[in-house]
Structures are given as structure tokens and as C-alpha cells.
Amino acid sequence: MKIKDLEFEPFIGEAELSEAVLRVAERINADYQGRKVMLCPVLTGSYMFFSDLSRRLTVENEVCFVKYTSYEGTSSTGTVSAVLPFPERVRGKDVLIVEDIVDTGVSMDHMLQEVRKLEPRSVRVCALFSKPGCLQRDIVVDYVGREIGNEFIVGYGLDYDQEGRTLKEVYVVKG
Ligand code: IMP
Ligand code: MG
Predict the structure, then answer these.
(1) Structural domain of residue 80, as residue ranges?
(2) Is the N end or the C end of the chain the one with fewer CB atoms within 10 Å?
(3) What is the model's pTM?
């Protein structure tokens, strides 16, 4: 399968994705039992993951999308800007940031600094994927669907230069 100049091959199928989503949801349901969680999915990459995850959640919740951008093509640019920042109403709440993928951790590190300024009661991080081998910041991803290597992936919300997001399975760049 080709997107722009890159060739991709199948990597993670629908069944494996839904198992990962279910595992994460069950842990969140257990950990936040009896509390209300302020879910903050990060646009645009987490939209499909969040849609499936949210249908598995049984805990009381509020939803507030945020949007921070840092990425161009297949490598991080290192500068993060807020397109849709955390709102004032996170103050005093139990915030759970929902990301598609943590790569270098630069974006998440920035978002954590931003949200903490608003003094939420607690902040945790959930990401469908993480690339531990690429991490450059001292951050903890509390809930991870699946760890991957240093490869570049698309599909299930993740894009290559804004394309490939609506693929229902995850593909990895070839070779
Ligand atoms: P970080 O700041 O390097 O951790 O990059 C995080 C952001 O880069 C994620 O929210 C994604 O939007 C994007 N990203 C990182 N790795 C990939 C990938 O393999 N495929 C598509 N997008 C990625
Ligand atoms: Mg993203």
C-alpha cells in the first residue's frame, strides 16, 4: 500500500487493536472507579482510538478535546504549539490525556506542563502506542495499548502527512 512517496505493509489488525483498546479501558475503569474522569483526547490522531475506547468506559466522565501539533512528515519538529488548549474547567479535576502515540515525548511533555498550570487534581496519560526507544523526555505513560519499535506507522487515526488516518488497521513503513 502506498501513501505519497512511502510504501506501507500491514502491521496490526482489527482484532489486535480492539484487544488493546479493551485492555486499556478495563484498567481505566478499575482505577477510576467511583471518580469522575476528565477525558482529554488529543486531536487529530486519537480520534479513532478515543471513539472505540470511550465506548468501553463505564466510569463517570466528561470529554474535552485538545489539539497540540508538533509533527511534520515522518519526524518530530520539536516545537509544539497549542491549537486547542486545555480549558480552565480542568482545574481540580482528574484529567486523563488520551493520545494516539508517544514518540519522543516532546508533545506530551509540553501538554503535561500546560495542563499542570491549571492545577487539575490529578493527571494521567493514556496512549494507544508508545515508542520507548524514541523517548527523549522523562515522562510516564500510565496506560499503553501497545509498545512498538522505532518504526513509522499509519492508520487507525494516525497519519502520514495528513493521509491514511481512516484506515481501520495499522500499517508500518516498509524496509
Ligand atoms: P512526539 O512529540 O515525538 O512524542 O510525537 C507525538 C506525535 O507525533 C503524536 O501525537 C503523533 O501525532 C505523531 N507521531 C509520532 N509517531 C508517529 C507515527 O509512527 N505515525 C504517525 N504519527 C506519529
Ligand atoms: Mg498526535
Answers:
(1) 15-151
(2) C
(3) 0.96
